[in-house]
Amino acid sequence: MEKIRYTVIGAGHGGKAMAAHLALMGFPVTLFNRTPEHVASIKARGGIELHSQDGDIQGFGQLQHVTSDYAEALAEADIVMVVTPSTAHREIAFRAAPHLRDGQIIVLNPGRTLGAIEFRHILREKGCTAQVIVAEAATFIYASRSEGPAQARIFRIKEAVPLAALPATDTPLVLERLRSAYPQFIDGENVLKTSLDNMGAIFHPALTILNAGWIENSGGNFQFYIDGVTPSVARVLEVLDRERVTVASALGIRAQTGLEWLRMAYDARGSNLYEAIRRQPGYYGIKAPTSLEHRYIFEDVPMSLVPIASLARRYGVSVRGMEAIILLANFIHRTDYWRRGRTLDRLGIENLSVSELTRYVTEGDLT
Length: 367
Description:
CATH superfamily of the largest domain: NAD(P)-binding Rossmann-like Domain
Largest sheet: 8 strands, mixed
Helix content: 40-55%
Number of helices: 18
CATH topology of the largest domain: Rossmann fold
CATH class of the largest domain: Alpha Beta
Number of strands: 12
Order of helices and strands: EHEHEEEHEHEHEEEEHEHHHHHHHHHHHH
Strand content: 15-25%
Shape: globular
């Protein structure tokens, strides 16, 4: 049987690890990065040296192509794995649209909030007629780091990662096509569910902003989740979490609470978020961001919090806590994340009722 051909878009921490691992598993892999200089060493060597923390994965992942040209990157791909910050999804959809062909599958790793809807909307705006499937993962499957120009390390591969296609009727096909490489992907119901189970939206921006003074004065020299989450900070996180779950409920979705997620992912338990976070051993030793110019704000606010708050405004849910965090982020970065973020009008779904939005993510019907 002919092996599935993968293209990985993005050569950062995650993209390098994924491309090398897929190659070591025996799949033909193309690696794309928009900046040629960033992948020059990989191209010169013909691949990436990969190691895992436990030593189970080790070797040189030989790549078929390394390129900064979208036409070359997409020409042979069966599955396109987008492994970039979600702030790049819009541009990638715009640039990729003329080069896509029928039958290709595009997976956003991860989509953050409403990523697949944004990607599909841009393809439609660009006049892309190729019959492609767009899907999103709820989180990135690897914990990994780049360790040199052509080296990467995998610390952990998650055992189960929810994934949903847009529409959800295509999810079984995507899971089947991915299974030979990634049996860890499981049915995520639909892209509203994967989007609204986005725990980074709750933990990252608020925790960074509420520790702004400490981050700027120390350069992030403290334990982010242990020293940074005090009882008062945890109460703010709990408010944001309740708002997220309420927005999901308004859309007919049962979202995981933060406490449920910590118990499922790490078996960390407590009567509140403060206790549960402190009982998660993996959080000990994780340092805070070194500055406020960090993806926990410039990515997670416009691509995670803004779309949740936008859904709340459309469907009548009060999210004053989220709106406060977005406003503070605007002040800190001297910008307007509402104008830059994934609002419903920018996604082309601003006029949909709950039933119409549900039908769209389930069946793909926008009429």
